[in-house]
Amino acid sequence: MRNRELTIDDQRILKHCAQRLGEFLHQMREQGGWTQEAVSLHAQLDNKTFRRIERAESSPTLETLLLIARVLGLTPSELFHGIADALEGIPATIIKTCVARMTVEDGLFEIEVWRNSGG
Prior knowledge:
Oligomer: single chain
CATH topology: 434 Repressor (Amino-terminal Domain)
Distance between the termini: 34 Å
Radius of gyration: 14 Å
Shape: globular
Strand content: under 5%
Helix content: 55-70%
CATH class: Mainly Alpha
Order of helices and strands: HHHHHH
Number of helices: 6
């Protein structure tokens, strides 16, 4: 079993990323005219799970993110570009930390985040 203890800085970074992700998913859901319940049903998630993701009370796996994206009519590329845009203004080192944690924890695929600024 992995050691999942996070430092206070890790927790702060992940919370900030989760908040931005939740805001992005909320915006996409509302633009598409979806309710939380409808997204949950179509993504085969518990209502509480999606609600907690939008409120940054829970961090989704990449698999869950891709299921939600499919329901919202987003390709994986659109999803991750949207997430990157939602994270705009956060220093690149923080974004890379969030993405690296998602990649390592889920082991599904690697994600690179490009930034024009030195961040």
